[in-house]
Design brief:
The chain is α/β, with parallel strands linked by helices. It contains six helices and six strands, in the order βαβαβαβαβαβα. The chain has a six-stranded parallel sheet, sandwiched between helices. Helix 5 links the parallel strand 5 and strand 6. The longest helix is centred in the first third of the chain and has 15 residues.
């Protein structure tokens, strides 16, 4: 099952608050673009972090230092941190491992292929779920994605069209993405 944003999904059945009381829920959101202005991805990351925190998750977001996103997340009590801008798995993985250990993260949400590759490196040391966010149609996915996307735990797509494409891509490429 490929997931779409909360607003586009069917209403979830109400669960008893008791069932969530003893569950540790911790997430790290990987996001870092060297931009100082506010854009659509910033809004998406802000809303994801805010909703996760509102539902009891501990959240750390990787941001551009001194960005508006960092300021807005800090205002609502979300922890922000940084990684070296060279967007490669080798430079991201050490900072990600440190952040995951700091909050005993069980989920990493990544946007770029190097972020997902870094999460897979961290998963060799810690038991984490890896979620990819797809903001672009499948036609824009580079060939290298197949290896990086293989056996991640889930994909959140920003539109029903992208979700349908991703679902078919998962089947065609035998990526074994479960959710």
């Amino acid at each position: 099952q490929i997931l779409t944003p909360w607003a586009q999904t069917q209403p979830r059945k109400k669960q008893h608050k008791q069932s969530h009381k003893n569950i540790n829920k911790h997430a790290v959101i990987l996001f870092r673009f060297p931009l100082q202005y506010w854009g659509g991805t910033d809004t998406h990351v802000f809303n994801n972090a805010k909703q996760l925190a509102e539902h009891g998750h501990k959240v750390i977001v990787f941001v551009t230092p001194f960005s508006k996103l960092e300021a807005e997340l800090t205002k609502i009590g979300i922890t922000c941190t940084y990684f070296n801008y060279a967007d490669s798995a080798n430079t991201i993985a050490p900072a990600l491992l440190k952040a995951c250990k700091a909050i005993t993260a069980d989920t990493v949400i990544g946007i770029t292929m190097p972020q997902l590759a870094a999460a897979k490196k961290v998963r060799k040391q810690l038991p984490i779920n890896i979620i990819c966010e797809r903001h672009t149609p499948i036609t824009e996915i580079p060939v290298m994605i197949d290896h990086t996307m293989k056996a991640i735990d889930g994909v959140v797509c920003v539109s029903p069209d992208i979700a349908a494409q991703m679902k078919q891509y998962n089947v065609n490429k035998k990526l074994d993405i479960q959710h």
